[in-house]
Amino acid sequence: MIKRQTHSLLTTLGRLFKFDALYLAKGGFWIAFDIITATLLSFITTYFLGNKLPPEIFGQYKYIQSLLGIFLAFSLTGLSPAVVRSVARGKKEVFFSAYNQAVKWNIPFLIITIGASIYYFYNKNIDFGLSLLIIALANYLLKIFEVFSATLNGEKNFRLLTLYQFYGNLFGTFTLSSAIFFSQSIFFLITAFFAPRVIISFIGYALTRKRLITQNISPVTTKETQESQDLSFHLTFINGIAAIADKIDGVLVFQFLGATQLAIYNFTTLFPNYFQSVAKKLMSLLIPRFAARDRRDVKSNLLKKETLFFIPLITIFLFYLYSADFLIRFFFPLYQNSIYYSKLYAVTILLSSVVPISFFDSQRRILDKYKLTTYSSVIKILFLVIGVYFFQIPGLIFARIFSKLAGWVLLILFIRKI
Length: 418
Hints:
With 418 residues, the protein is mainly α. Helix content is 84%, strand content 0%. The radius of gyration is 21 Å and the shape is globular.
């Protein structure tokens, strides 16, 4: 009885807002589980780091993570969405060609990151040098093995995908939180963070490969695999520009203001970024669903879907304005001076658009996404450089808000022209 009533309610909501509510509810449980557990485990890690490490050391740790974000721009970041798209269309054989592609085209990331490691060794900063060396090796392996998670996503196997991510986050949180009590070396902390994730990713890759071979899916080259490879290169360039724009603020704060100020800036953006991760996780539900549908059909109801997702964003924003003082004072008393600017930065929650971006990823609107990402990323980088140079952390906050607003406006304009 309850099951039938729930089915009827979801069907009615789907007709009202022009989306597949049954699909969203089915996958949404596991996406919600992933969001809650990943956010909780990440928060536990940050709690230990923020309260057990001096601000100077914590700032150095975040600087290394920011460098990683920029260096990943030179990895094959477009491979996963391309694999998701192909697998969602029933072409699972792309798994094998994608792995070979990842082995080859993630080498630039490996070389650049090792080069940065050598630079710090040369300048006698052994801790940074070793940290970047571990980052290079660990993330090269992670980028290779991530084809398994893209395959599960394309298959809409959100349960298994979420469980792999959960175990990786769980063991990563345990090892890193434990490592803090033994050493404050950045190298030691970075190793503790990545080691469990590499192990879990390898297990996921090996089991997925074995399953596909058992299903008689062989590594053959088809038109679909070639299209997937071409798409991955285009998306890599697009994602690379966006990655640099997204992570450069941490590097700018460290270089201009120092490690302690970077620690303060991190807690300014911490909670709003956690809330925004909800929107980003929803993309993994929308891309395979959009990929299987006609462009005109998707676009016709796009703004209605965007309106639907905007409602919870308003709720989250108001909740954070009310609770920010308590959250920061209670959990991170060393960083109470970040409260005011954190509330201001929370405006970006309202600009966390999900649906239109998923439309670009799923429908192969390559040229449009090239233009959109380039324009918005250049605007963001310019705002961030000007903001931190002239106005320090307050300037960065306003730069993030204005650049996000500009990107959102550009996104809507591009959607209307398609």
